[in-house]
Amino acid sequence: MKNLLLQAISFYPLKISIVSLNQLIFCLFVLNLAGCVSQEPTPIQITEPIPVTVSQDEGLKNEIVRLEKMIAEKDELIKSQQMRQQSQAQVLREVNKEATRTQVKLHRLATKPSTASAIAEIEVALEHLKQVKISAADQILQIQVQHLVETASISYEKDQYAQAMNHISQAKHLISLITNSDRKRTSIENNSLLVFHAPIKLRAKVNVNLRKEPNTRSPILATLKKGAPLTANAGLGSWLRVQTEGNQGWILSTSLEIEE
């Protein structure tokens, strides 16, 4: 560019100083830079988020429907179980009513001859048990039978035949438990609590745990040493509810023996 300006000056008889020429070149250079800066900037591309596809929405809807169906099935199952429990409770109430009516009828029909015959029958069964080898747990029940027979005899002597028949019926039930071989294979749930007519004095054959409930997973209340005295007041299956000094709990009957 400087050369072009020098050539143009040579055609004109003008006297231009070197300083003026340099200023002119500097102005042209500035104008050229301004033109470069004024160019439009490159636009920035903005990336938009990818929208959720229709297939994902359908999957979520199907999962919600499946969960709602599962909840409805669980509700129906709970209602069915509640109805079954109510039905079983109603049947149990009816059985208890029938047993009560039978017991009342038995008391009304109790007479002197029938009571004497029932006492004699239980005494024969009791003498037969004394000749048979039975377990320690059954020996405890046998003692309870002896108490009931004695109490029934006292009631008979007082002409209280209905009360005597009540004791005899309890003794007959205990004898059936002793002679029933399937009783030992029956679970705790299928047994009923048997409250003893008279407490029985026992002692521990070995060191044994006194538990809160009649099962081996129940918390231990205390540990009784061998020979420790205790009193049994009820039974449930192969477990006995016993009373010790300050504690009451459950112990397996196989760990106890009759106190002489």
Detailed description of the structure:
It is a single chain. This protein has 260 residues and is an alpha+beta fold. It is built from 6 helices and 7 strands; from the N terminus they run H-H-H-H-H-H-E-E-E-E-E-E-E. Strand 4 (229-236) and strand 5 (239-243) form a beta hairpin. It starts with a helix and ends with a strand.
What is the CA-CA span between the terminal residues? 138 Å
**Largest sheet strand order:** 6-5-4-1-7
Instruction: State the major sheet.
Output: 5 strands, antiparallel
* Regions with little confidence, pLDDT below 50 for 5+ residues: 11-16, 185-189
**Number of distinct beta strands:** 7
What is the overall shape?
A: elongated
Structural class: alpha+beta
* Tally of DSSP helical segments: 6
Radius of gyration: 52 Å
Report the average pLDDT across residues. 76
Percentage of β-strand residues: 15-25%
The helix fraction, in percent, is 55-70%
What is this entry, summarized?
The protein is α+β, with helices and mostly antiparallel strands and 260 residues long.
